[in-house]
Amino acid sequence: MLLRVEDIHVFHGTFEALRGVSLEVGAGKAVAILGANGAGKSTLLKTISGLIPAARGGILYNGEHIDQMVPDLIVKLGISHCPEGRMLFSQLPVYKNLELGAYVRRKDRRLVETLRQEVYDLFPILKERRKQPAGTLSGGEQQMLAIGRALMSGPQLLMLDEPSLGLAPVVLTNIMDTLARIRERGPSILLVEQNASESLRIADYGYVLETGNIVLAGKPADLLNDEKVKKSYLGA
Description:
Blueprint: E1 3-12, E2 15-25, E3 30-34, H1 41-48, E4 56-61, E5 64-65, H2 71-77, E6 79-82, H3 94-101, H4 109-122, H5 124-128, H6 139-151, E7 157-161, H7 169-185, E8 188-193, H8 196-202, E9 205-210, E10 213-218, H9 220-224, H10 227-233
Parallel strand pairs: 3-8, 3-9, 6-7, 7-8
Antiparallel strand pairs: 1-2, 1-4, 4-5, 9-10
């Protein structure tokens, strides 16, 4: 198992944001986490990334405990986090934003160039706009850049937080299709998303998170046919 989260509890002050969450991501698999705002989805990804400490529980990556590691070491091990809101350096050009994503690999210039070309292959528009400031890109292009920057560390596990945010449906479909291609190339994907139909379309397995608890888990077809998921996330 590539990633195993075991009964983690996370607090924001006295508020318990995650209450005994457990999940798994296998090698070469895509896993979706569904949930409304405030469910704890972003907190979960930040905890895996080492940005927020867990009060209890464990996080294992390739069988190694990472729950006490600092974020840059977690990135070096092969976990990359594409945050909600993209968090780009808007004044810097596209190619500089990509280079910053390769910070932990910066000493291996050949690898960095290979990773950059792979990003340009996935998102040709970024190559066309490589000298353009990131802040002048469209919303869809900025999301492509945020994903591309996350890929520049050469991850085994790519975690994405709400990539659909602010995107038109056709743009989101294209982004999701690209994520499916990324998964086929090797990295596993842990996708936090409110858009159930699009995220489950590319996922091998899914979890539903509510108020810090996993309340449902299963294969995409089972979740899409679940009445609770239909009512809460599919508008049925």
